[in-house]
Every structure is written in C-alpha cells, then in structure tokens.
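2024-03-11 09:14:02 INFO queue: dequeued item Dynein heavy chain 2, axonemal-like isoform X3, len=634
2024-03-11 09:14:02 INFO validating residues
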Amino acid sequence: MWVRAMELYGRLYRVVEPKRIRMNAALAQLQEKQAALAEAQEKLREVAEKLETLKKQYDEKLAQKEELRKKSEEMEVKLERAGLLVSGLAGEKARWEETVQGLEEDLGYLVGDCLLAAAFLSYMGPFLTNYRDEIVNQIWMKKIWELQVPCSPRFTFDNFLSNPTKVRDWNIQGLPSDAFSTENGIIVTRGNRWALMIDPQAQALKWIKNMEGNQGLQIIDLQMSDYLRILENAIQFGYPVLLQNVQEYLDPTLNPVLNKSVARIGGRLLMRIGDKEVEYNTNFRFYITTKLSNPHYSPETSAKTTIVNFAVKEQGLEAQLLGIVVRKERPELEEQKDSLVINIAAGKRKLKELEDEILRLLNEATGSLLEDVQLVNTLQTSKVTATEVTEQLETSETTEINIDLAREAYRPCAQRASVLFFVLNDMGRIDPMYQFSLDAYIGLFVLSIDKSHRSHKLEDRIDYLNEYHTYAVYRYTCRTLFERHKLLFSFQMCAKILETSGKLNMDEYNFFLRGGVVLDREGQMDNPCTSWLADAYWDNITELDKLTNFHGLMNSFEQYPRDWYLWYTNATPEKAMLPGEWENACNEMQRMLIVRSLRQDRVAFCVTSFIVSNLGSRFVEPPVLNMKLDTGCS
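2024-03-11 09:14:37 INFO prediction written
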C-alpha cells in the first residue's frame, strides 16, 4: 500500500512538478508584468495629471484671450465714446462758455433791466409809441445812467419779456405785428394788475377771444342781468373772463376782482363778491375792454387796473395791412416768413431741451461717463441740432432780409391804405356820427386787392391798387357823409396822400387850416391898404410872410397896391394872375394860401381845383347812389 502510494505519488509528482515549475515561472513573470504595469499606470497617471494641468492652463488662456478680446472691443468702444464725448463736450463747452458770458453780461444789467421792465409794465400802457420811446430813452435811461444803475445799453421791452414764438402765436391769433401792439400784448399778459384795454377798433377784443377761446373764455357785459353769476363760476373753476364794452364807470361790485382781494381760510383761497364768498382758482384771468377812443377813468380805476391803449395807430395798421396785401399777392413770402420763425424757434427749443438733458445726465452720473450711452447719444444729437440751428440762424438772416425786401415793395399800398383809414377816423371829429369799423375797412382793402387791375410789372400793379382803393374809399364813404362834408373829406384825402409822399409843406398846410394869428402887434408892419384891406386879412398876410416861401409878400402890397386891389376884387381870384413875381413863385398850394388869407369865400373853389389837380375830377363828383353796385360790392 505504501509502495503503491509512493509510486502514485512519484507518478503524480512527475506530472505536477513541471507544472508547478511553470506556474512559479508564470507567477514570477506575472509579478514582473504587474510591476511593469504598475509602473506604466503610474506614468499614465502622471501624464494624465499633466494633461489635465495643461488643459486647465489652455482653458485659462482661452478665457484670458476672450476677456482680452472683450476688453479690447470695450476699449475701442470707450475710445470712440471718449472721442465723441470730447468732441461733443468741446462743442457744448464753446456754446456754454458763450452763453455763460452772455448771461454774466445780462446778469450785470439785470437790476436796471428789471427796473425798466417793471416801470414799463406799470406805467406805459396808456401811452402811444412816440411817448413810450421818449420816456424810456430820454428820461428813464438817462436817469438810470446818472444814478449809475447798470442796465443794458440796447434795452428793449419786447425782447426782455417775450420771445419770437410767443409773439408769432399772438399775431396768428389776431394781434397786429407792429412793436406797439407787441408791447401791449406783453403788458396784458405779464402785468400784475388786470388789463383795461382801450379798444375802439376791437383788435384787442378779437385777440383775446382767439387767444383764450380754447380755455373756456366767458364773455360778459355789465348790461347782462347774470354777469355776476357767470363771473363767480369763472373765478371758482379758473376760466378766463372778458368784460367788454365798459364805459368810464365800473361797477363797484368788481372791486374785489380788480384788487385781487383773496383770503386764505383753512387752506382754501376765497374771494368775497357782494355778500357771497367764492373759492378762488389761480387759473382765473380777467380782461376788460372799452370801445371809447379817449376815455377818462378815475385815479382809483387807474390804480386798480393796467390801462392799455390798443387804439390802432398808423404804423401798426400799416404793418397789418402790409401783411394782408403780401399774403394776397405773394402768399409764399408770408408762409416762408412764418415757417422760418417757427423752425428757428423749434430748433432753439429743442437745443435747450438737449442742453438741459445733458446737464441732468452729467449731474446724475455716478460711474464712468464713458459707460453712459445715453449721455453720448444725447451729446451727438445736441451737436447735430446745434449745427442745424446755427446754420438755420445764419441762413435765416439772409432769407429774412430777402423776404423783408420783397415785402417792402408792397409798403406803398399798405401806407396809402393806412393813411386813408385815419382820414376816415378823423371824420368823427367833424360829426360824432361818422364812425367807421376797422374790420369793414380791411374788408374793403381786400376787395380792392381782388378787383384792381393786375400787371406783371410790380410798380404798375401798386399804382393800380392804390388808385383803385383810393377811389373805393371815396366812393363808399361818400354814401355816409352829409353833402357839406364831402368836399372836406376829399381835401383831407388829398392832403394826407401828399403829406405821406413828401409833397406837402406842413407849415403851409397848417397855415391853411389855422390862418394867421398875430401875438405881437408892436412889431407888425402897418397895413398899406387900409382903404380896402381889413386888418384881419392883413394879419393873415403878415403871418404868411413869416413862412419860408413867402418872405417879402407883405412888402409887395406896398410895391403893387393897385395890382393887389384888382386881384382882390376879381370875381374869381383863384384864376387871376398874382401881382409881381408871385405869379411864378407860387405853386397851387401856395396860391391857395393867399386866397385863404384874402378871399375866404373862394377857398372852396381853390380846394376843388387843388383836388382835381392831384387826385382827379372824380374825387369832387360824389357818386350817385347805385343800390345794385353798392350791394354787390359790400
């Protein structure tokens, strides 16, 4: 058993031993390979770690590159913005420095300018243009300089308290465009007291209605039974009120309104009208107009209101009629002038808004200015707008000069029409019944423009229009005059037309109207023709001798007493030859003065001849009433 076991063992040993040897060799090789593998894996791990590190570095570099690219782009944008900011602010700086310089200069004059403006608002309303200019320039300005109060050397009331856009709006609303009317408009709208407007031609009435029409204007009259109720409602709800057609006496019930007697009770503003307390709205405005041409108001009324004289004057009416004729004949000129003013005003307003926005953005900026896109864009817009406005202002001066030159060509028409209206206006002094409406007269002027003969030559067109309108005024006015006043009206027309054209010696004309009045008879030459020449007539001759063109006239009565007697006793002395050199020395007007001095009974015949010579025979032949023609042209 043991032998067999040993034998089996030996046999198995011989089989297993080689395998075990190979196994050990394999295990040894495995260990060797595993060691190599571990070494390789270690190297792989190191390489992987290195690769990860490089990848991270790569990603970091890419991120840095992207960041640098963005910074580069941002810097380019900032550089561009910086350029725009420098450029924009440089332009603004130049304009702002100029503006600041002007404002500093104006600030230095502010005390005197405010004093003049306040005085003008308070006291100049009732006066006409020439008195206003005289008082401001020759009295107030002189006194201010004497007291060394700083004021603008070229102070003008309208420029100080208004702007062209506002004035243009007023003109569109019916206010005449002359300086006098503009000053009146400022006094009405900027004065501290309610305005009482002397408005015989209803121009202020028309302007107020158009200006306040969209604001709920309430129109009242003292003859209305419920005018106080309307006034109370307007005060409470802040509506403007127009009290029209007042006389020289104002209802004492209006005193609280005129005095602005407002009391604050419990946070409310109250005004007592009669026995009733009315809540006062600060938007309330009060206007008063009268048709009286020369009213006499009490000192109390003058102290409670600002009296403003809106009575039409020749310059104002001339400017108004010039606008009408140019708008009819050359509408493109008026449209261009209107649009020019509007565009310039709009540009200036836009520029001011942009400047205010720039200052606001600069004031509110907390970070870098280069990051404020809105500021940069606003600066660019402001720069472009400033350039456009500057160019507009430069071109507008030339354009406005050209427009005014073109408009001035039509001034003779406006001047003639203005003169004729005031001839009509003066007829009220002859008879109070002669009252003529300005609106009706303007309608007649427009009718003359439409119906007068046209011509391609401007000078001929103006002559045709003046001729047509002059006779139209005569024809339409004669229908309303007494027969005894028609020749006087024609003569007034003729004299005013000649005066306007510079063809009438005003000293001679005034002598014709007033005659000679001797104030000192001690130095008067004795009458050499007492037998036939009355002392009153000799007074006329001695006073006429004092006029430039009549020196030596009274001596000629000593030289040619018989010739003067024959002339004096002639049935038609206006047609007879004057004695001596006076026949050739006198023109028709001067001959008429001699007739007026010696033969007043023949003055009407002289006047008739004078009118025929200057205007034509039809101006001394009152037209026959033609209902068909008159109604068709009305």
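2024-03-11 09:14:37 INFO annotate: The longest helix spans residues 2-123.
2024-03-11 09:14:38 INFO item closed
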